[in-house]
């Protein structure tokens, strides 16, 4: 076995990039080994081990930084939120103590950077690019197969197959179907749930034996867990209960699989967080956008931003919803990456953003809409979602505008309460403006006025439907026959209601400005 080099401060800074952490003051070389991440608490005695990174929460003045450098002892670095107050005293103290001062971007939370650094340190000491991960799950599955003398699958909490051993042809048709589809078929999963096998599996810390129907081979299974968290399970197709020796072997194998799953999850989470942070920087379009785009490998000119969001959730559990969002974002990244090698996508909050480079042609937004529509067609059976498309950004400084456009287009689709729809910003521009006006009216606590206010008050007091009558009339462009049919009354009755609403409200329906005013109030106040 070859030991990998320990994580150095320089290596961590290279992996995160200056968009997340930047060097504010350095004692020189940054090859000091990093051993852990610690959070500063002014109420506790500071006992920092050698090589620790100290997150200086709440520290922002030069004199505080100097005092902390004196107390930090053999630390590798002290992290302070940007902008960092670095003067000559701080620089001198950095040289004296040999502890670097790092600046954390204002957009990042302390919890986020703590989790990010700890994940990086837990990733097998930052494996070199292209290095194969140790303890491959398929190799583990084959090892368990040899120990138990039975074909094995390793599955996650949703019964998706993460890895499988050889000799699957010795199992039953259900196992073959599971391996081919990389997912336990729904009918088998439902049967296991109804018979209480999943509950028994997840409640036990020892392997359990499951007797199935005559046409199926029985199973021995064990939950893969980290503490009280269930990470997945191992399933062996067996014809009789396991011996005590093989029971212990399966239980021990579950611990090894748990370590591998945690290692994989840490690596995947770190890469996703880095991607999300870098893409957020690109979408902000600030001074760091160019570096972030370079690290992501995305284009810097002629870009369209897509904002995609799941429109419904079948799961009430927060973890399942987050898992659905991440799978949806991964599918979007794969889709845009297949269209252009310099495209990128990442999940930011509940929205999956994609930056899509487009060749010149004059119809870039329409082409981006078609890309989004083709993506929704592909994922439609699995994910109900909407996508907003921003206008073309000529360069990185205009990407923030394209992102705002995409967000507004997506909001219009949410307001329409539709699913599986795509909207380009130019196509829903007016609706987006009305929503912005509605926000402004709510923020300033404005209320309807004039004829519209009087009609609403009359309806509330008398139980009449004069506002609905007016809306039908305006929507029908003054066609009384069409408007009366919409509200299911006789045309003469409708004419009488129009006369009454004009008398009560003082609205002159012959005045185009008066009609426009009341139409806008209806849309803005949403009554």
UniProtKB/TrEMBL annotation:
Domain spans labelled PucR C-terminal helix-turn-helix: 466-524
Where's the CdaR GGDEF-like domain? 288-412
| GO terms, molecular function | DNA binding
The yes or no answer to whether the keyword Ligase is present is: no
| Keyword annotations | DNA-binding
Fetch the InterPro entries from UniProt: CdaR-like_regulators, CdaR_GGDEF, PucR_C-HTH_dom, PucR_C-HTH_sf
Q: Family membership, please give it.
A: Belongs to the CdaR family.
- Tell me the protein's name: DNA-binding PucR family transcriptional regulator
Native organism is Streptosporangium brasiliense
The organism that produces this protein has a lineage beginning with: Bacteria, Bacillati, Actinomycetota, Actinomycetes, Streptosporangiales
């Amino acid at each position: 076995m070859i030991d990998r080099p320990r994580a150095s401060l320089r290596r961590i800074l290279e992996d995160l990039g200056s968009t997340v952490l930047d060097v504010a003051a350095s004692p020189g070389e940054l090859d000091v080994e990093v051993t852990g991440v610690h959070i500063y608490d002014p109420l506790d005695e500071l006992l920092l081990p050698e090589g620790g990174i100290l997150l200086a929460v709440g520290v922002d003045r030069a004199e505080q930084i100097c005092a902390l450098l004196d107390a930090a002892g053999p630390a590798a670095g002290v992290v302070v939120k940007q902008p960092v107050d670095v003067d000559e005293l701080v620089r001198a103290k950095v040289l004296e103590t040999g502890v670097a001062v790092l600046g954390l971007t204002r957009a990042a939370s302390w919890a986020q950077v703590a989790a990010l650094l700890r994940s990086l340190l837990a990733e097998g000491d930052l494996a070199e690019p292209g290095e194969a991960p140790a303890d491959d799950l398929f190799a583990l599955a084959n090892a368990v197969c040899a120990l138990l003398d039975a074909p094995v699958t390793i599955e996650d909490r949703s019964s998706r197959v993460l890895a499988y051993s050889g000799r699957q042809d010795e199992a039953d048709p259900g196992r073959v179907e599971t391996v081919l589809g990389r997912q336990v078929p729904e009918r088998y999963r439902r049967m296991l749930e109804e018979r209480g096998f999943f509950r028994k599996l997840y409640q036990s810390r020892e392997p359990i034996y499951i007797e199935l129907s005559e046409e199926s081979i029985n199973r021995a299974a064990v939950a893969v867990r980290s503490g009280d968290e269930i990470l997945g399970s191992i399933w062996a197709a067996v014809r009789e209960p396991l011996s005590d020796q093989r029971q212990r072997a399966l239980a021990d194998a579950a611990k090894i699989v748990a370590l591998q799953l945690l290692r994989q999850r840490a690596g995947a989470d770190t890469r996703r967080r880095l991607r999300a942070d870098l893409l957020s920087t690109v979408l902000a379009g600030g001074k760091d956008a160019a570096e972030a785009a370079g690290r992501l490998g995305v284009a810097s000119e002629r870009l369209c931003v897509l904002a995609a969001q799941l429109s419904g959730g079948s799961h009430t559990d927060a973890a399942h919803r987050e898992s659905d969002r991440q799978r949806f974002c991964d599918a979007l990244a794969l889709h845009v990456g297949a269209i252009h090698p310099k495209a990128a996508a990442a999940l930011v909050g509940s929205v999956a953003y994609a930056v899509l480079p487009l060749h010149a042609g004059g119809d870039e937004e329409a082409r981006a809409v078609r890309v989004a529509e083709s993506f929704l067609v592909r994922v439609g059976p699995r994910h109900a979602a909407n996508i907003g498309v921003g206008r073309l950004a000529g360069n990185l400084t205009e990407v923030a505008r394209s992102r705002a456009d995409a967000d507004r287009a997506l909001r219009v689709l949410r307001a329409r309460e539709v699913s599986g729809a795509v909207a380009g910003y130019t196509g829903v521009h007016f609706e987006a403006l009305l929503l912005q006006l509605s926000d402004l009216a709510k923020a300033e606590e404005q209320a309807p006025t004039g004829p519209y206010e009087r009609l609403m008050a009359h309806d509330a007091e008398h139980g009449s439907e004069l506002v609905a009558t007016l809306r039908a009339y305006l929507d029908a462009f003054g066609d009384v026959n069409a408007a009366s049919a919409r509200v299911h009354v006789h045309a003469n009755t409708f004419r009488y209601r129009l006369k009454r609403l004009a008398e009560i409200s003082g609205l002159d329906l012959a005045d185009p400005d008066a009609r426009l005013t009341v139409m806008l109030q209806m849309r803005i106040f949403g009554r």
